[in-house]
Amino acid sequence: MDLTRASLLREMLSGTELGNRTTEFGYALRRFTTRRSGLMLFGPVDEEPWHLTAHLDDELRMAGVEDMRPSLVRWAPPPDAPPHLAIGLDRLRDAGRGESLLVVAEDAPADTLLERISDVRKRGTTIFSIGNGDKELTSLSHETLVPELLVPDGFGWTTRELEPEAPTIAEGFETAQHLVSLAAADDEAGRSGWRRRLRNAIERLSGEPA
């Protein structure tokens, strides 16, 4: 799904539980990542979150958010990998306050993954996760998104509306990642919490965009 279709889908899902939660999740990701280059993505050994890292990087770059460009943390990068794909587990040992670790694990995470997450959390890093509701991963996360609990009835029609010849997008896990990356790059995500609440209150009272 390209940026145009993802943006249309976000508009179409506005007001649904999936739309609202992915927006809140993306905003929180932006708000709690205060150190430059402090956003890390991490996942299972055999399913590292390349897809979401690429989308976040593209959308944050296009939005001009240069201080939050994401890093994919890999279990065993090959020695000849380019610099942006050669970030290994040492990065997790250097993590600390003002940084965020976004864990993407569609299946139940292995103990080795959970142990790494626990270590990073102890150093003061904020843990975000997109998963299937696994209890251990949820308990380690400050903020959790479980797409399968949020997909609205009749979800398949949204993708056919955007691309009639294509098969429907899987269920909601991939779609939720698109929505999170768009929300993180949103100008509203960069506003402080009280400014955003004030803006929303003004709009409700006046009926006009503030």
> Element order, helices and strands?
HHEHEHEHEHEHHH
pLDDT under 50 segments (min length 5)? 157-170
Task: Tell how many strands the DSSP assignment holds.
Answer: 5
Helix content: 40-55%
Estimate what percentage of residues fall within beta strands: 5-15%
What is the CA–CA distance across the termini?
Answer: 32 Å
C-alpha Rg (nearest Å)? 17 Å
Q: Taking strands numbered 1, 2, ... along the chain, how are they ordered across the largest sheet?
A: 2-1-3-4-5
Report the major sheet: 5 strands, parallel
Helix count from the secondary structure assignment:
9
Specify the structural class: alpha/beta
Name the overall outline. globular
Mean pLDDT: 84
Describe the protein.
The protein is of the alpha/beta class and 210 residues long. It is built from nine helices and five strands; from the N terminus they run ααβαβαβαβαβααα. The chain has a five-stranded parallel β-sheet with strand order 2-1-3-4-5, with helices on both faces. α5 (111-122) links the parallel β3 (100-105) and β4. α1 (3-12) packs across α8, α2 (17-32) crosses α8 (173-184) and α3 runs parallel beside α8 (173-184). The two termini are 32 Å apart. The model is unreliable at 157-170 (pLDDT under 50).
